[in-house]
Amino acid sequence: MQNLVGIDVGGTFTDLYLTGGGRVQVLKVPSTPGDPAQGLLDALAATQLPPGEIAAILHGTTIATNAIIERHGARAALVTTKGFRDILELGRRDRPTMYGLAGRHLPLIARDLRWELDERLGHDGTVLKALDEAEVRRLGEVLQAQGVEAVGISFLHSYANPAHEERVKEILAETNPAWHLVTSSGVIREYYEFERTSTAAVQGFLQPLVSRYAERLQAQLKTWGYQRDLLIMQSNGGLVPIKDLGAKAAWIVRSGPAAGVMAAAELAAQAGWRHVITGDMGGTSFDVAVVIDGVPDVAESTNLDFRIPLRLPMIDVHTIGAGGGSIAFIDRAGLLEVGPRSARARPGPVAYRRGGTEPTVTDANVVLERLDPNRPIAGDGQTLDLEGARKAVGALGETLGLGIEETAEAILAIINQRMAGRIRLLSIEQGHDPRDFAFVAFGGAGPLHGAALIRDVGIRSMLVPQYPGGLCAMGCALADLRIDLSQTLEKNLDALPAGEVDRIFAAQAEAGRQQIGESGIGVESLEVRHAADMAYRGQIHNLRVELEPGWTAEQIGAAFDRVYAQEFGAALANTQRRVVNLRTAVLGRRGDRLTLEKHALRPHEPKPIRVRRVLFGRGLDTPIYARQDLTPGAHFTGPAVVEQSDTTTVIEPEMTARVDAWGNLIVELA
After folding, report:
1. Which of 126, 232, 321, 516 is the most exposed place for a label (fewest CB within 10 A)?
2. Among candidates 333, 328, 350, which has minimal Cα distance to 407?
3. Residue 62 above 90 pLDDT?
4. Exposure of 568 by Cβ count < 10 A (0-12 exposed, 13-18 middle, 19+ buried)?
5. What per-residue confidence (pLDDT) applies to 321?
6. From the centroid of its chain, how far is CA 31?
């Protein structure tokens, strides 16, 4: 098998997963927030593999996410229909804080960079007021003087007729060919005015930054000697070639977490679990997602920040600031709090010896000896500073009147409760019984806390993949190319002209095939999926219905009734059905995609490599196992600790553990 490399650049570590020639290598190196590409190059160099022996690099990145959070994207302008300049502030009339008027909204594009044009289209795309091209040219001169890098163009009802947006784009390109020009209809052809405009603003804000990153990364890899394909993970779980990255900037927000969920879903399905909750705990955050029948939940609109929705298909990952680097502190009320502020890669936890002075979750795990201070961590060969961690945690405990170990246990209890609360939000509060799910724990810190989480939530089983610290990187190597397209129709089903749905589906499928063909990436096969967003007349919330080409209106209506009855208990008789949006996903299946190997089970009790005193409320002599020694069929009971290069798994008392045929560690409540 050719050497495939998956790389996920996180906030604290850059993870690499290498497979090929019958071997697998997983490693972590510190991320380089000032230049994310450097962390990627450091990880490649650590493999000691010549660049000519790598067939493909598949990459998940946080560059778009960080740009939104930190507001360091491009100087972008927005052009809208007259009267709609303030749509980014008006939004949906929501508030930053539910029970008060405090808080502020910081739009991605400032008001002095938002401009109006006196044009108007009707809801059906008819021209009510023609575009004044002379006005557009005058505006181009103003934007030139403002020194913008990108211009987003979002007109009312452009989903029905993109002609005005496209003409403005052509004129502005004549004014300044260097501008990055984005039309809202070119990003999504849907009628959600605010969300469509916000998505265009996100794309314009990110496109110059992401384009420069792509160019710089390509140049650096070429200098290193790598000349082959580089694919980037999108938030929808598919890949896009790096040459298209600028145009797909908004599609890569949260690409790394999406890769992890895709890999977790596939591993769990192979192991026999179709319903799982995934938990990715890294250095700065905890990402949770739900997988039903082997398919991750997909959100069509995601709030990146207050009043910044992104209306693109994204794997529905919920994130909180809870990671190994989350800082413990005393709040104004004198109570112990943990996170969301993080020590990140630099200065990091106190135990990392990089200058950190504030106690973190990692330091608490070191104090309780759930992490072995004598084992190197973080890819730099440095052992952990136990005394430094104890000193930092102890100083916090003095304020609380607690001992060092008691304070460390309190830190873990708080962070675990925060994460368990997020799992409950996505399971119990959404009508799911956690007992019907398995929990897939991954990330550098996920397996360290997973046992406590399944106990708190009531989940019976936890699956720890063979390489949990590199699962997001592995997910990149598992992914296929994917193109998502959508278009608003907004018509009653019984009033649809014959063949209109098939005509739109055919056009979307052809556009997706063309984009995959133009990517230059060889694919083994193409798969096309169609769906519609539908509702009964008068309803404002839609349901997704999977459709097949050639279906009659009666078949489409019956499919919607079935989905509605499954969701709400009964369909509504004698009520008109509406087709709101039509959607097509085109998947290009890679021939070099990673495949996983199944092994025969040989039941046995493994021997620990040593015994260490670990605190579980009280000190217990705990067997320590090396993950590479745990072959399929191994089984043992807790308490236990399993150590490997990319993470540590803690198995609490009254729990059992076994290794399945795929190499996963299965932890269950006894």
Report:
1. 126
2. 328
3. no
4. exposed
5. 87
6. 18
| pLDDT digit string, tens, across residues 592-647 | 777 778 899 999 999 999 999 999 989 999 999 999 999 999 999 999 999 998 89
pLDDT at 376: 78
- Which of 5, 527, 517 is closest to 229 using CA atoms? 5
Q: Which of 483, 494, 487 is nearest to 244 (CA)?
A: 483
pLDDT, average across residues 412-439: 92
Cβ contact 589:526 at 8 Å? yes
120-139: buried (b, 16+ CB within 10 Å) or exposed (e) per residue?
bbeeeeeeeeebeeeebeeb
Q: Give kind and range of the element (H or E) at residue 206.
A: helix 193-224
Q: Classify residue 597 by burial, with Cβ atoms within 10 Å: 0-12, 13-18, 19+.
A: exposed
Phi (first) and psi of residue 480, to 5 degrees: -115, 170
- Average confidence (pLDDT) over 184-210: 95
Please say whether the dihedral angle defined by the alpha carbons of residues 498, 500, 501 and 507, taken in this order, is positive or negative: positive
247-280 pLDDT per residue, tens: 999 999 988 889 999 999 999 999 999 999 999 9
User: Distance of CA 172 to CAs 77, 82, 177, 182, 197, Å?
Assistant: 12, 18, 8, 11, 18
Q: Determine how many CB atoms are found less than 10 A away from the CB of residue 540.
A: 6
**What mean pLDDT is predicted for residues 518-527?**
87
Query: Which pLDDT score, from 0 to 100, does residue 536 have?
Result: 96
* 412's tokens: 């873990």
- Lookup result for tokens 């939530």: 457
In the structure, what pLDDT confidence band is assigned to residue 380 with cuts at 50, 70 and 90?
low
Q: Assess whether pLDDT exceeds 90 at residue 553.
A: yes
**How far is residue 382 from each of residues 14, 356, 385, 438, 659, measured CA to CA in Å?**
17, 15, 9, 35, 30
Q: Is a pLDDT exceeding 70 seen at residue 378? A: no
Lowest mean pLDDT across 29-43, 69-83, 219-233: 29-43
Beta bridge partners of 280: 287, 442
Report phi then psi at 360, rounded to 5: -125, 175
Asked whether the beta carbons of 186 and 168 are under 8 A apart, the reply is: no
- Give 627's contacts (C-beta < 8 A, 6+ positions apart): 466, 642, 643, 644, 649, 665
Task: Compute the distance between CA of residue 257 and CA of residue 318 in angstroms, rounded to an integer.
Answer: 10
The pLDDT of residue 79: 98
Q: With the C-alpha atoms ordered 49, 55, 61, 64, is the resulting torsion angle positive or negative?
A: positive
Identity at 530, one-letter amino acid code: H
Phi and psi for 45 in degrees, rounded to 5?
-65, -35
Q: Find out whether 103 and 306 touch, Cβ atoms under 8 Å.
A: yes
User: In terms of Cα–Cα distance, which of 169, 150, 237, 155 is closest to 472?
Assistant: 237
- Residue, of 419 and 344, whose pLDDT is higher: 419
Rounded to the nearest angstrom, the gap between the alpha carbon of residue 659 and the centroid of all alpha carbons in its chain is: 28
Burial classification of residue 221, based on how many CB atoms lie within 10 Å of its CB (0-12 exposed, 13-18 middle, 19 or more buried)? buried
Provide the pLDDT for residue 381.
Answer: 67
- Contact by Cβ (8 Å): 143, 77: yes
The angle subtended at Cα 589 by Cα 316 and Cα 563, nearest 5°, is 45
Q: What is the Rg, in whole angstroms, of the alpha carbon atoms belonging to the chain? A: 26
pLDDT, the chain, mean: 92
Q: What is the DSSP letter of 71?
A: T
Token pair recorded at residue 251: 């599609």
